[in-house]
Specification:
The protein is elongated and about 70 Å long. With about 290 residues, the protein is an alpha/beta fold. The protein has a seven-stranded mixed β-sheet with strand order 1-7-6-5-2-3-4, sandwiched between helices. It has helices at about 25-45, 50-55, 60-65, 75-85, 95-100, 105-115, 135-140, 150-165, 180-185, 190-205, 255-270, 275-289; strands at about 5-10, 115-125, 175-180, 210-215, 230-235, 240-245, 250. It contains twelve helices and seven strands.
Length: about 290
C-alpha cells in the first residue's frame, strides 16, 4: 500500500451524509446494464409491461432498471436472459452488478476490513457501522439531508449490512469498539429502534473476538475529542487508519500518522469503561429506555 493519505469524497463509513452527486463508477455500470436490457427488449418487440410480466416483475421495476436507477437482482437478469434469448449475455452481467450494488467507498472499506487481523474503532456520534442493526442503519440514512430516494436507502443499508460479514471470518479478527455514551442514548429511529440496537450491542459483546467499551460523558480525560477514528492492523503487518469527517473519509497509510491514531485509540480504550463494566452500563441504559 502506498504511503500517504487518500480522500474518499463520501461521508464517514458509519454516518449518513453521503452525496449521490459524488458517486463512483457504480452508477455508470447500472446505466450500461439498463441500456443493454432495453436494447434486447426492444429488439424482441416487447413493451416494458409485457417484458415485466414475462419475467415476474412490474413495469415500474423494469423502467427503473433500464434507466439505471434500480439494481436488478440475479434472478431478474437470468429471467431476462431466458425470455429475450440472449444466450447468457445478460446473465453474464451478474458479477458486475453484484459489485456495483454497493458504493465504491463502501467496497474499499470492506476490502480493508477483509484484510484486517485487528480492527479498532471509536465512534463519537452514532453507533459504529459494524455494530448497527438494520433498523438503526435505515433510520440513519433516512435522516440524511439532502434526502435519499427509497432505492438509495435500500442500497446503502444493504452495503452496511454486508460489511458485517467480517464477524463470520475465520480466523476471526480481533474487533474492538469504543462508543461515546451519547451514541447509546440518542433515540435514532425512535425508542424501539434504540432499544433493539442496545440489545444487539449486548449480544455482540458476548462474542469472544469482540470487545465493546463505553466512554462515559462524565469522564474528564478523553483522548478522542478530535472525533471518530478507525485503526486497522492488516494481515501483512501494515497498519492504516481511517479518519471520518463530514463528506470525507480519509485513509491514512503513512506509518507515522497511523501510529498516532493507534496511540490515541489505545488511550481512549484505557480511559473508557472496561468491557465488563460497559456491558453493565449498556444494560442499564437499555432498561431505562
Amino acid at each position: 500500500m502506498a504511503e500517504g493519505t487518500a480522500d474518499y469524497t463520501t461521508d464517514g463509513a458509519d454516518g449518513a451524509g453521503w452525496d449521490p452527486a459524488l458517486e463512483d463508477d457504480s452508477g455508470a455500470v447500472m446505466r450500461a446494464v439498463g441500456r443493454m436490457i432495453k436494447v434486447w427488449r426492444e429488439a424482441a418487440g416487447l413493451k416494458q409491461a409485457e417484458f415485466g410480466a414475462g419475467i415476474g416483475y412490474g413495469e415500474e421495476m423494469v423502467s427503473s432498471v433500464e434507466r439505471g436507477r434500480r439494481v436488478p437482482k440475479p434472478e431478474f437478469l437470468d429471467n431476462a436472459d431466458r425470455l429475450l434469448g440472449a444466450g447468457g449475455k445478460i446473465s453474464a452481467m451478474k458479477g458486475e452488478v453484484a459489485e456495483a450494488r454497493y458504493p465504491k467507498k463502501v467496497r474499499d472499506v470492506a476490502k480493508l476490513e477483509a484484510e484486517a487481523s485487528e480492527l479498532g474503532a471509536f465512534a463519537s456520534t452514532v453507533v459504529d457501522g459494524l455494530l448497527q442493526t438494520e433498523s438503526y442503519a435505515r433510520a440513519l440514512f433516512d435522516l440524511r439531508r439532502p434526502t435519499y430516494s427509497e432505492d438509495e436507502i435500500d442500497r446503502q443499508v444493504a452495503a452496511r449490512m454486508a460489511r458485517q460479514e467480517i464477524y463470520s471470518r475465520r480466523p476471526a479478527p480481533l474487533l474492538t469498539f469504543v462508543q461515546e455514551e451519547a451514541t447509546l442514548r440518542r433515540p435514532i429511529g425512535g425508542r424501539e429502534v434504540l432499544r433493539g440496537q442496545l440489545e444487539h450491542l449486548l449480544e455482540m459483546g458476548e462474542l469472544r473476538h469482540v470487545e465493546i467499551q463505553v466512554m462515559p460523558t462524565a469522564v474528564e480525560e478523553h483522548s478522542g475529542l478530535g472525533g471518530s477514528l478507525r485503526v486497522l492492523k492488516l494481515i501483512d503487518g501494515t497498519m492504516v487508519g481511517l479518519n471520518e469527517v463530514q463528506l470525507t473519509s480519509r485513509l491514512i497509510s503513512e506509518p507515522r500518522e497511523a501510529q498516532i491514531l493507534d496511540m490515541r485509540y489505545g488511550m481512549i480504550r484505557a480511559q473508557a469503561l472496561t468491557p465488563r463494566e460497559s456491558m453493565a452500563f449498556i444494560a442499564k441504559i437499555r432498561d431505562e429506555s
